């Protein structure tokens, strides 16, 4: 399968996994009343859609392959945390945990699926 096709499949899988986790986390664990699902879902989509291409296409030539997953995922978690902080008005610590959990589950399921 070509790299771009794998990317599109990964993007779709990432969205299917991470956006519901973000919504469940904010609504049930954080009891977030100011953000509706109509706001959380698009923000989750934007965060993943902005970071995954950088992980796949931009960072790969600049990071040694031994560290690519670690450095890439740390950067993605941090950037998505900033997006959640700004667009969902979460405290950074909550945004960081949400991003970490979403990406951890996505990464683990991705390694199982692919």
Feature tags:
4 helices, mainly alpha, 81% helix, 114 residues
SSE layout and pairing:
Layout: H1 3-29, H2 37-58, H3 68-88, H4 92-113
Helix pairs in contact: 1-2, 1-4, 2-3, 3-4
Describe the structure.
The protein is built from four helices and no strands. Helix 1 (3-29) crosses helix 4 (92-113) and helix 3 (68-88) packs across helix 4 (92-113). Helix content is 81%, strand content 0%. The chain is globular. The mean pLDDT is 94. By secondary structure, it is mostly helical. The protein has helices at residues 3-29, 37-58, 68-88, 92-113. The chain has one domain (3-113).
Structural class based on helices, strands and sheet pairing: mainly alpha
As a whole number of angstroms, the C-alpha radius of gyration is: 14 Å
Helix content: over 70%
Number of separate strands: 0
* Basic shape: globular
Distance between the termini: 12 Å
Sheet with most strands: none
Mean pLDDT: 94
Count structural domains. 1
Task: Return the string of H and E elements.
Answer: HHHH
Q: Unreliable runs, pLDDT <50, ≥5 residues?
A: none
Report the sheet-strand fraction.
Answer: under 5%
Number of helices in the DSSP assignment = 4
Which assembly state applies to the chains in this document? single chain
């Amino acid at each position: 399968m070509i790299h771009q096709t794998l990317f599109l499949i990964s993007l779709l899988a990432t969205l299917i996994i991470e956006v519901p986790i973000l919504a469940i986390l904010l609504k049930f664990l954080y009891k977030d009343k100011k953000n509706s699902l109509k706001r959380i879902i698009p923000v989750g989509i934007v965060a993943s859609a902005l970071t995954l291409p950088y992980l796949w296409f931009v960072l790969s030539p600049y990071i040694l392959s031994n560290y690519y997953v670690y450095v890439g995922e740390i950067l993605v978690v941090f950037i998505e945390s900033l997006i959640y902080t700004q667009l969902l008005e979460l405290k950074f610590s909550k945004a960081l945990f949400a991003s970490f959990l979403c990406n951890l589950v996505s990464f683990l399921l991705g390694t199982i699926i692919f």
